[in-house]
Amino acid sequence: MIAIYKRELYSFFTTPMGYVYIAMFWAASSFAFCMTTLLAGMDSSISSYFMLELLIIALMTPLLTMKSFSEERKLKTEQLLLTSPVSLPAFVGAKFLASYTMFVITFLVSCLNLPIMFAYLSENNLYQYNAAIALGSCIALLLVGAAFIALGLLISALTENQMVSAVGTLTASAVLLGASLANSYINFAPLRMVLSWISIYSRFANFNKGYFDIAALIYYASFAFVCMFVTVRIYEKRRWA
After folding, report:
1. What is residue 35's DSSP assignment?
2. Helix extents (H) in the chain
3. 14 exposed, middle or buried (CB, 10 Å; 0-12, 13-18, 19+)?
């Protein structure tokens, strides 16, 4: 597992994809920070900033996962991995951890702009309240990233075309983000309840209001686990096909 993890992590820096992801993520985060804090005013901007971060993560995640399994199938190297002594859960877990490591490092570096935000807030006696929102939102975004990466790996395992994998991940992420937004057009209460339950956006909104929603964190972690479990089953079926 460690060998596969190192190989996958190293591959991000031997191809342009890793550098493109880092540059685009940091550029988008910096732009969102400037637009929602320095230009829009501090009192009402923190929630908007983290909502934009949620959108940025959804848009950028396919860059990390689009080639994870698709490239293996295209290059005909997945058979070597499937016949290796490494177990399938370890095989899938190593690829997940490599992508997640890239995400966590990139995201945490982008959070270095938060002390600037707190410096302004402390002048207005809003430090404690907004610091709680920032901390809760950062923790939630770390788990949201895990959910999106697991989803991207699942979709990547279904195709050998990287662009199909990327578009499929973006589409699925958009559905999960915007599921609850369709509630205003639906009169059927049970359906509205289901859409709110699966919506990543509606669950994340609680953190933006200053509430630490443990149920939402469990949902994100469970979603990531289910996606990885299904990915393992896909490869288990492919191994014996």
Report:
1. I
2. 2-14, 16-33, 46-65, 70-74, 78-82, 88-110, 114-123, 127-156, 162-178, 189-198, 200-208, 214-239
3. exposed
CA-CA distance, 88 to 55, in Å (whole number)? 31
Q: How far apart are CA 27 and CA 31, in angstroms?
A: 6
Cβ(99)–Cβ(149) under 8 Å? yes
Structure letter (DSSP) for residue 86: S
What does the radius of gyration of the chain's CA atoms come to, in whole angstroms? 19
Q: Are the CB atoms for 50 and 208 separated by under 8 Å?
A: yes
DSSP, collapsed to helix, strand or coil, labels residue 210 as coil
Closest CA to 37 of 138, 120, 142: 120
Paired tokens of 162: 């990287």
How far apart CA 5 and CA 90 sit, in angstroms, is 9
Q: How far apart are CA 18 and CA 100, in angstroms?
A: 12
Q: pTM of the predicted model, to two decimals?
A: 0.88
CB neighbourhood size of 156 (10 A): 30
Note the pLDDT tens digit of each residue in 5-47.
888 888 888 888 889 999 999 999 988 888 776 665 544 567 7
Question: Interior CA angle at 32 toward 64 and 10, to 5°?
Answer: 20
